Amino acid sequence: MFKRILIANRGEIAVRIIRACRELGISPAAVYSAADAGALHVRLADVAAPVGPAPAAQSYLRGERIVEAALALGADAVHPGYGFLSENADFARMCRAAGLVFIGPPPEAIEAMGGKIGARALAQAAGVPVVPGYDGADQSPERLRAEAERVGYPLLIKASAGGGGKGMRVVDGPDAFDAALEGARREAMAAFGDDAVFLERLILRPRHVEIQVFADSQGTVLHLGERECSIQRRHQKILEEAPSPALSPELRAAMGDAAVRAARAAGYVNAGTVEFVLDQAGQFFFLEMNTRLQVEHPVTELVTGLDLVHLQIAVAAGARLPFAQEQVAPRGHAIEARLYAEDPATFLPAVGTLALFDQPGGPGVRVDAGLASGDEVSVHYAPMIAKIIVSGPSRPAAVERLARALDELAVLGLTTNLPLLRAVAAHPAFRAGDTHTGFLAEHQIAPAAPADPPLPVLVAAAIWEGGAKRGGDKGMRGQGGANGDPFATLWRANGGALPVAFEAGGATLTVSLRHDGAAWLARAGEAELAAELLHAGPDGLTLAIGPGREQQRFRLARDPASGDLLVAWRGEAFRLARPRPLSADSLAQRADADAANLSAPMPGTLIRLHVGEGDAVREGQPLLVLEAMKMEHTVVAPYDGVVRRLPFAQGASVAGGAALVELQPSDGG
Prior knowledge:
The protein is of the alpha+beta class. The strands form eight sheets. The protein has an eight-stranded antiparallel sheet with strand order 14-13-10-11-12-15-20-18. It has an eight-stranded antiparallel sheet with strand order 22-23-24-25-26-27-28-29.
């Protein structure tokens, strides 16, 4: 067995392989770009080496630097993960030449299945059915146009070297063919350096079903069942499951046998995936082979009980597969949901700091993540945050567990596709197993526009801003509060009623809190709610809400860039800003000075008082200085007036929303 394996990757797959190495008693080594110097996979590895600047082309895609790092760190094998160099035959040869074991297929197999045209021809020769189409060497527009007429419309133009939906176009008729061909070729050349394309008949409402294969170097080739990956956006998967709800035992055996034949024809060794399209009549056709570990491999692990990364390492070390085909049978059901930092409506990636990442747990829930709270999602790499994988004894049980896990998941600070994942998990067609690659478009599944924060969220935010995270459980249950608790001080200063304002969606939302000795009574407009604080910790609090005292958990964090308060509740995320105090900078920008808010935008320290009670002040005159989020905020008078009251002394800690100055206008209004 290997002593040290270098993982030539980053993110969640690097973390996944590092943990597998530790379980096998193997020392894990990592590489990192300049952007990933403090990344989770680097923190978890035994040793790590830099391989270049942030762009992948200058770091993770530089095979010679990866090999140099492996040798320098004393590795005897390299695991490429998925993406980057995982399907690069030249890199596999580079490892071999350096005396390093490449944990994957031989370079000859990678090349045999690397181009879609060549893979299609190899599959046909092995008796594997392929979608009717054209994959000839003549790439002239005239020949392609003629072949399109023969294949028939609608059809797909696909880049031979492509993947992830790049270089792919749907063509509904001959009038659109030339423009689609030009666009597909242009995109293919930009993405892969190869503008060769092939044509395929478009299968309407197809399912995307793939077969996991495994082969050892002694000639054994097996399949581990299927995964259905039909829920996609822009030809990229977002939910996968095993087994497929569409396959009978007979169809599963036929597809598995076809996948094994394709792998044998390529001289395959190690883990690979043969992808098929399945039509509504139950006919399946070869699409391509991915010569690596798949993103969605965990669902196969959960239904077979096999650790695919352990098997990869063992096979690469020369071991035989320790089971026969008849010993592989799915047990129960598993579903994976990919959590991305992206807009759930436009699918555009989002970047920034992951202020809080609170993972779901419980029986049958697994989370493969490459990030933790406080980590950055960079513009340089794919925006995947984590994979949420669930399993259960049946598909309905797994679907319910997925819905529960997604509701329990809290992600703050980044825009994510969590609302889309929750919408899919709740949709009747998905729950019925009626899925296909056009599922999202057909059902027009899109997350609803963000709603105004409901009253429970406002109440939780107000209590949190008031110092619950600092005071803990004590001092928040009764009227008086703990000594020095700024929230209790503010409550008393307002005669037992506490108004707290937030800004969300361009509107100002105000909640008024009053304590009756047992619970907080909250009012926002005509709505009322009773809430008792049960627990407060560093990243959230728990309230007993309403007449039924339903226990609700809220996760909260501060956006480090804007200072906004972020709240996660019942699977949804809310952003609440505090109305900013009037400052010398903002005064000149506001004609409506009377609307200024003389309150603390967030918890802070009153570091300077420029005035005293009874002082007459002029519009724009500095009144006090508040330090919050390591910045000083100067509060100025919005109008001529008299300082009636200063609730806090210099040096006092003040709660977010605290009224800092009571200022009576000179006109007596």
